[in-house]
Design goal:
11% strand; Transferase, Pyrimidine Nucleoside Phosphorylase, Chain A, domain 3; 2 domains; Pyrimidine Nucleoside Phosphorylase, Chain A, domain 2; 5-stranded mixed sheet; 16 helices; 47% helix; single chain; alpha/beta
């Protein structure tokens, strides 16, 4: 294959195969194509819509260039795509802590905020959870707590070749698909919130050849990359190389008044304070119900025989049991 030919092919509106896309992105991550060429490729793909095989190839390439850790234990990740502009609470990041309190090993992949006030790194930093660990420090922390936050810039140094172009373009590109599917520890089970339901199908087709045991992709009807408290959430399940779908209706779990009472557009410190108040409260709150609903979906990924309804009850009990607060204290100790 020839990089220049693949660039020309893409710019002329032709679709790349998974192998061609992987080769092209190898060149991107090696720094072998210019910023002008990269901008042209990204723009051309965006105009005709990125194809599943192109996303799969880019993911396979990015995984090769990621910095991994000598951790062989099976881990779970709740990393979403972000970019939904909902300015919601840090739901998936909180769910990762709740799951850890339930005994599940977590490798939370994430970054700082781009489109909201509080990204996962910002939220964890406000909670005094280490966000910048790498190498043996990260391994020691994980072995102690069965939890690690993988700050994306530390684990994807090759992204430096794309960063300037992405910043200058200022629009969503194929790179927005890659982050959640490029966790350096490559979990076999994962849940990924997606920024809009219209992208679920292409994302599912892109993830299908990547070797997951079970993967859940989800997005609410109003374009939220979490299980929404107000709108139905569309869920795509990948298991045994098959794709199935279902919908979560939030009114089964919390009322519209409760949903509307959940604070939004808060700073990282405000979100952290609200989370600490919630997990130290024995009384059910609208936020605790929303966190339980999102945790219920995570538990559905982790346990093949579970149900969203049963998982919701279990998660709600855990949130108010004090065990999540105890887990947070341990994670803060380093």
């Amino acid at each position: 294959m020839n990089t220049e030919q693949l660039i020309t092919q893409t710019i002329e509106g032709n679709t790349l195969s998974m192998e061609q896309s992987e080769y092209l992105f190898d060149s991107i991550f090696d720094g072998r194509i210019s910023q002008i060429e990269l901008a042209a490729v990204l723009a051309a793909m965006k105009v005709r819509r990125e194809k599943p095989e192109e996303i799969s190839g880019a993911i396979k390439s990015m995984r090769k260039f990621a910095v991994s850790l000598p951790i062989t234990e099976s881990v779970f990740d709740t990393c979403g795509t972000g970019g939904d502009h909902s300015h919601s609470f840090n739901i998936s990041s909180a769910v990762a802590i709740i799951l850890n309190a339930m005994g599940y090993p977590i490798a939370k992949h994430g970054n700082r905020s781009v489109t909201s006030k509080s990204g996962s790194a910002d939220f964890y930093e406000a909670l005094n959870i280490p966000v910048n660990l790498s190498g043996q420090d990260a391994v020691r922390y994980f072995n102690k707590h069965k939890f690690i936050f993988l700050f994306a810039p530390n684990y994807h140094p090759a992204m430096k070749h794309a960063a300037p172009v992405r910043k200058q373009l200022g629009v969503r590109t194929i790179f927005n698909y890659l982050g959640p599917l490029t966790n350096p520890l490559q979990p076999k089970r994962q849940m990924i919130g997606v920024f809009h339901p219209s992208f679920l199908e292409v994302y599912a087709q892109a993830a299908l050849p990547l070797g997951y045991e079970r993967l859940i992709l989800y997005s609410s009807a109003n374009g939220m990359d979490e299980v929404s408290p107000l709108h139905p959430t569309h869920v795509v399940e990948i298991c045994n190389n098959k794709i199935s779908t279902f919908t979560i209706n939030p009114e089964k779990f919390l009322s519209n008044d409760e949903a509307n009472a959940i604070p939004k557009d808060l700073s990282p410190q405000e979100n952290a304070t609200l989370f600490i108040e919630t997990i130290n409260n024995t009384t059910l709150t609208p936020l605790s119900k929303l966190l339980a609903l999102n945790t219920a979906l995570a538990l559905f990924v982790l346990d093949d025989d579970s149900s969203i309804e049963d998982n919701y009850t279990i998660a709600l009990d855990v949130i108010h049991s004090g065990s999540v607060a105890q887990t947070l204290t341990k994670l803060q100790e380093g």
